[in-house]
Every structure is written in C-alpha cells, then in structure tokens.
What we know:
Elements: E1 17-25, E2 33-35, E3 42-43, E4 48-53, E5 58-60, E6 67-72, H1 74-80, E7 84-90, E8 97-104, H2 114-122, H3 133-136, H4 159-178, E9 203-204, H5 207-210, E10 217-218, H6 221-242, E11 244-245, E12 259-262, E13 268-269, E14 282-290, E15 303-309
Parallel strand pairs: 9-10, 11-12
Antiparallel strand pairs: 1-8, 2-7, 3-7, 4-5, 4-8, 6-7, 12-14, 13-14, 14-15
Amino acid sequence: MPTSYTFDPTGQSINNRVNGEIQTITPTTNVYHVLVPNAAPFYGASLQILYTNLSGVIRTLTEGTDYYLGHMFAGASRATGRPVYGSIVLLNNSLSGTGSLSYQTLGGQWVVDTPTITKVLSDLLRNPRTTTWEVVSDLPTVFPPSPHPWDLVDMVGQTELVQALSGVSTAIASRAAQAPVINLPAQSLTKRTIGLGNVDNFKTASDNEATGTSNSRFMTPRSTQLAISAALSTYEQSIEGKYISTSMPTTGIYSASDYVENTNRVILTWHSVPTTAMEGVKYIVRGWLRMTDGPNHAANVDWVEDRVIIG
C-alpha cells in the first residue's frame, strides 16, 4: 500500500484505493466509538469494513446498522459532488477484534497525519454527526472547486438555445413597433396607465422583516439570504433535538437503526426477571436504538436500551 496519494477529486483513481487496512477494535465506555482511517478523509460510498471478532468469525459491517460515517468534510463534499468523511463511528461499543478497511482516499495535502488522528480520537465530546472535518483538522487551505472543462470555441452555448432567444428578441421588437403611441399628460402617468397595474406597491423588506411573516414586502438578495439562514438554523436545531433526549422517545416518526443519545445518564442497578443472572449489576443507559420504522414507541419492540455495564 503506498504511503502517499495524489489528490483525486473524482473518487475513482485506482492509485488512491486503500485495501485491507487493519484497525484494532477494542471495547470502550466513551460516548462515541470512533475509528479514523490512516489515509482519511475518504469517499463515503467507497467504504467496506470486514470485522473479525476474537473467535475468528468474520462478517461485513453494514452502514446504518453497525456504524455511521462521521466528521463530514463539507468543503470537499460540495466541490466534488460526492460525500467525503473523516471517521467511522461504531454503534456497538462492546465490539472487540479487528476491522479490515477498504476505501477510496481523497489524497493530496488533505491526508491526515498521526497528530490529527490522535486529536480526533481524543475529542470525545463532539458529536461526529454534526462536527465537520474542517473543525477537527488543521486544513492547509480552503478546499478548491473542481475544474469544469469548457470548450472556448462554443462559449455562447447550444445552438438551439441561441436561436430560441433570438426569436424571443425579434418578437418583442416586432410587438413594440406595432404598439400604438399613447400621449398622456404627466399627471396621468400611473403604474396602471403604463401597463404595471398588477404590480404591488410594496417596500423592500428590512433585515428583521426578512425572517418574519409579512406578505407585503419585496426581498433583496441580502434579505433572501437572511431568511434562508434562519430557516436552516431552525431545521438543524430540530434535527439535532430529535436524536438527543433525556428519556426514550414517545413521539415522532423514526426509521430502523436510528439512534437517540441519552443526555441524562445515571447509574442504575440491573433487576432481572425472572432470572437473577444479572441481578445487582451496575449499568448506565447510553441511549436507545430504533428497531422498527414508523410512529410507534413501545419499549423492547420499537426501541431497545443501549446499556453499558460499569460494575
């Protein structure tokens, strides 16, 4: 396996394929069980993980069931048009064995070094779902846009489009030439007399009005940007709140393999019924794993507790 990789914005270069990278997987009591590939960041769609437990049993881990991808590299994902990530988050903190990782690395100056990997693995408080790769890694520069080849001989565009626009221009000029000339006194010039009777007399929205509910203001590029930013912020807060709770969810629609993190962790004592095999064992509820699709919320049917034994 090469020790360095050239920058590959396509996600297809055979020289950037990493096959059979071995990662040791040990149980943890941390909130997040994170693996960082040695050549991260990587293209998410290319990842394959073969897990071997301590008994030698090998199985392929499934995204959404066994793990999810974390620390999205937002700049690279936008520029390449392909999701790029920096880490793998295992959903089962008790896994013990090895993982054989195969993936397509982004390459170039973006490949992390050992200190960066150590920083990501030691930062246990950040949620990998919502924390971007830009936040945890010291990037050398802003990710560049991907080149878009353009034929300089055909800068105008498609011939059919040019012909259609020329037709529209000719029709407008012909209609204007045929329109009768109307001489009106200055005091009679109103928006209706000049053909703008259906245009509302609205003012331009202020910054505060841009994020309000008024239907009597016109939007500028700035006010439109403010409205979009406010809507995105509200949406992100609602999504974040959906996957963090102090108790098992009882409302909302979820999909199988969704995970809700418990933010009210206390030490509990296991009471086994009818057997007493686990009687008295201390544990915490790390969160709840969704087992079914839909709006139902029955314990041990739609949701199961993710328990971590501590003593």
